[in-house]
Write a structure and sequence with these properties.
This protein has 299 residues and is an alpha/beta fold. 27% of the residues lie in helices and 24% in strands.
Length: 299
């Protein structure tokens, strides 16, 4: 049985920690928005800490998260930002108390490590969504989608894709996150099982050849063959090649999944973009695609 942490209510405490890179600027706006939702914001030591590029030493970052994983008064933990570093501390964390009393873990990018781990190990839902560092540049729709996800208000995302999608209707459990980080946990205890799931992927700052290679790794491992659906989010800030690769990220992905028969949605509004809609990993969703019109609904 997949565990769903209790939805938040006004007056609940949410902790901000930085499991990876240090914050380059204050996150006052992000704190204000969380408070405007009626939440009490508690700041971890890592919010103001720094050690080289990280938000403190590995030991401090692990201790900071551990404190809030174990604190029953904290109902959710949101990463202040991503970057790099979560994989350095994931194996130092003790999830015993978390598993007994699940709480929402929120973030994206490097935080995919943490989200993938709690689903793989404890079948617990989490939220791939905006972080306080990105709140300031977020669309209102993305922030509202995060609020709804935290407070248990089911949402529906509908849009028209400018890249040809594969039509169809499907339902299933949503898994996924940042493609690079999903590959980083392959073969470890943090690896998600994609079979009979709807997979969501996104990435930023990668070359086309790198996206091609990562997708081929997943295909060779058989992880693309048994999906119920594929949701392809933003693949932006693509690195320039000295010699043109010849395919866009969307074309790369389509080329590798076109032999299958499940619905495929492209240019989904989620990822390293302002309109980064919240994706509740581990939750049942429906995906419907007709004439490149995509409707994604939480069930």
């Amino acid at each position: 049985m997949i565990k769903q942490p209790p939805y938040l209510k006004k007056g609940d405490k949410i902790a901000i920690v930085c499991p990876a890179k240090k914050l380059p600027k204050p996150i006052d706006k992000g704190i204000e928005i969380l408070q405007s939702w009626g939440l009490e914001v508690v700041l971890g030591e890592t919010v103001t800490a720094a050690h080289h590029q990280f938000s403190g030493t590995d030991e401090l970052r692990a201790k900071d998260i551990q404190t809030f994983l174990d604190d029953s008064s904290i109902k959710a933990i949101i990463a202040g930002r991503g970057g790099y570093g979560t994989i350095r501390i994931i194996d130092e964390l003790d999830f015993t108390a978390f598993n007994q009393h699940p709480k929402w873990l929120i973030g994206f990018s490097d935080i995919t490590i943490l989200l993938s781990h709690v689903f793989a190990q404890f079948e617990t839902q989490s939220i791939h969504g905006q972080m306080p560092y990105t709140f300031e540049d977020s669309t209102p729709e993305a922030l509202e989608s995060l609020r709804k996800a935290l407070f248990g208000e089911n949402d529906t995302y509908a849009y028209q894709s400018d890249f040809a999608c594969r039509e169809g209707n499907t339902e299933g459990i949503l898994v996924g996150g940042n493609l690079t980080l999903l590959l980083a946990v392959e073969g470890s205890v943090s690896e998600m099982n994609f079979d009979d799931k709807i997979l969501f992927i996104e990435d930023v700052g990668e070359h086309e050849y790198s996206i091609d290679r990562m997708m081929r790794v997943l295909k060779r491992k058989g992880k693309l063959a048994k999906l119920k659906g594929l949701v392809v989010g933003a693949f932006n800030e693509i690195g320039e090649e000295s010699i043109y690769f010849g395919q866009t990220p969307e074309e790369v992905i389509w080329d590798l999944v076109k032999e299958y028969n499940y619905p495929v949605a492209f240019l989904f509004p989620s990822g390293h973009i302002a309109d980064n809609r919240a994706m509740v990993l581990g939750k049942d969703v429906s995906l419907s695609i007709t004439n490149n019109n995509v409707t994604f609904k939480y069930i």
